[in-house]
Specification:
Blueprint: E1 4-12, H1 16-34, E2 40-47, E3 50-58, H2 59-69, E4 73-76
Antiparallel strand pairs: 1-3, 1-4, 2-3
């Protein structure tokens, strides 16, 4: 089974949560247009000044999507 990679975008400041929520809209649009293998996205508030948006991709797709979307960081995704 192919590994899944969680690409993460960090947002900081008082508007971080709303910015992360909005970023997910664009990630979903990208998934629809590019027809990626997975459609796992979301956002999470880590604290009141730091939120993240994320997208999960297969390891096979990771480099192309990374170069197109330029996430801040990534990690192995475990369900």
């Amino acid at each position: 089974m192919e590994r899944k990679i969680k690409m993460i975008w960090d947002f900081r400041g008082p508007a971080a949560e709303k910015t992360a929520e909005h970023h997910v809209i664009h990630l979903k649009e990208f998934i629809a247009v590019e027809k990626t293998e997975l459609d796992i996205t979301g956002h999470q508030q880590l604290n009141e000044m730091h939120s993240i948006a994320y997208m999960v991709v297969t390891e096979n797709e990771m480099k192309a999507i990374r170069d197109a979307l330029r996430p801040h960081r990534g990690e192995i995704y475990e369900e």
